[in-house]
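In this supplementary section we document a worked example of the pipeline. Step one takes a protein sequence of length 81 as its only input; no multiple sequence alignment statistics are reported here. Step two produces a three-dimensional model, which step three serialises into structure tokens for compact storage. The input and output of this example are shown verbatim.
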Amino acid sequence: MSGCKILKDGDRNTRYFHLIATMRRKRKMIEKILVEGVEYSDPISIRKAIVAHFKRHYAKKDVARFDISNLGLLVLSEDQR
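The serialised model returned by step three reads:
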């Protein structure tokens, strides 16, 4: 039902449209966030905490490289490959 009203009234700059937009913006806003036991409530600090989290999560990690040259494996010739 409300979807029909939105389609009918649309975004004709009506009071109804602005009310819906304001309610949606408030509903989607992060008011506070808890990161590693620290609570952030300021919008700038929330943004920084989120960015820092994803930078840590997606950072390139050092991976142990193993040298298999001394395992005595046979090397395939070009024809065998």
